[in-house]
Amino acid sequence: MSDNSDDQSNSSELSGEDRQKWERVRGRLRAELGEAVYNSWFARLELEGVKDGAALLTVPTKFLKSWIHSHYADRIRTRLCAEFSTLEQIVIDVRSPTRRSRPRDADAGAAAEKAAPAAPAIADRMETQPVKAPMRVSGRGDADSFGGSPLDRRLSFSTFLVGPSNQLAYAAACRVADARPGEHPLFNPLYTHAAVGLGKTHLLQAVARSANDNKRRVLYLTAEKFMSGFVSALTQQNSIAFKERLRNIDVLIIDDVQFLQGKSIQQEFCHTLNSLIDAGKQVVVAADRPPSDLETLDERVLSRFKGGLCVDIGPLDEELRVKILEARIAATQEAQPTFHVPPAVVSYIAKTIVTNGRDLEGAVNRLLAHSTLNGAPLCVETAENAIRDLVRSQEPKRVKIDDIQKLVASHYNISRADILSSRRTANVVRPRQIAMYLSKVLTLRSLPEIGRRFGGRDHTTVLHAVRKVEELASKDKSLSEVIELLKRMLAE
């Protein structure tokens, strides 16, 4: 039977009710993952039919098939099972190249037409613009018109508040941004890492704006935007133009590089990194951890990161927290002139919220709500009620798989590399199984994700380890005590 016949057969198996179920699944995926991720990976995913407990899904390319199968298969299966009660498995296949995607209905077809161009934003523009067109980031923040991620106009050097924890990162970013066209980079790449909400994205966008003002061609991208651009280029068969476009800039800025996934994508990123650095072009990168902790990235990429300047942004001290609060309050007063926060309230919030700048901004928003809605003057007692949900001192510590691996390795006098290795000696296997068990019970990670974090092992290996440790701990009191000790240490 021809491919065309198969398609017709599958199409006939998808009833009107099944189409409605599929649209609900698509809607949930869009809501859970966000518009950008959805358009990048799911806009071309179609349900062809459900038969004998299996759902057949199709995509136009092998790359999309591999990516979705590796990263989103479990999520899709869960959403489909919620709609199709008899479903047991999903099958992802590549559509015939002679067959075009069919709209599910008039509304869905129109939505698909609108959504589809969003993913290949870079690739589509490469067909209509010369490769050597400038890619400067405009002051209006419309970087997306050149294939970059959009910028927030508020994030500039003038609005970045400096303190002891971020002074070095700020100085390095200013030095990079102030370089003149053709000047050889002093720090290349510049790698900044910090926890959430401490200002690394603010610095990167400030570099993008300032470097553009110095007449340099700048491209600011999130890791997600880089991945979607690469996939779109492959889908549209514009990969060569994509490569040339990235290499024809003066400053490449990549944010949230810890999210960079996929062997092919990392290889392309490595080639781009090498090409730009070797050509004397500036590269600026930000992540939520130092390069040595980015275990999912290619070793060659990490080597390049380590060869540059790595600076971290530490926790905000109290003085800097007060500055951030005062700046945010002043900005709010421009729109709400009657909004007034007494110094005692500012001091209380600065002492109470010690996490990050976003929580401090959230505190000001809550004070504004209480002030405008209640109409009463703000005091410390009012502030205490307003920011109650932001106070995290009583929350349990969030345990990371990296921390578990390090602690277990240290306890059993082996290296973390041993736990991640393929060694099967007794002194390594048992600690590895205990680390997998603790990862399952102390984190929200799925079995496949835990397996990937333990040297790319299968989820069945993790499941076996969990069951084995549970069985042994129920019989061996000393092992049970060790596990409880490790749990307490991880919680501290």
Description:
The structure is a single chain. Helix content is 55%, strand content 9%. The chain is built from 23 helices and eight strands. The strands form two sheets. It has a five-stranded parallel beta sheet, sandwiched between helices. Strands 1-2-3 form a three-stranded mixed beta sheet. Strand 1 and strand 2 form a beta hairpin. Helix 2 packs across helix 5, helix 18 runs antiparallel to helix 20 and helix 21 packs across helix 22. The termini are far apart.
Question: Per the principal axes of the C-alpha atoms, what is the gross shape?
Answer: globular
Kindly report how far apart the N and C termini lie.
63 Å
> Reading side by side through the largest sheet, how are the strands ordered?
5-6-7-4-8
Give the total of beta strands.
8
Q: Keyphrases for this structure?
A:
single chain, disordered N terminus, globular, three-stranded mixed β-sheet, 492 residues, alpha/beta, 8 strands, five-stranded parallel β-sheet
Summarize the structure.
With 492 residues, this protein is α/β, with parallel strands linked by helices. The protein is built from 23 helices and 8 strands.
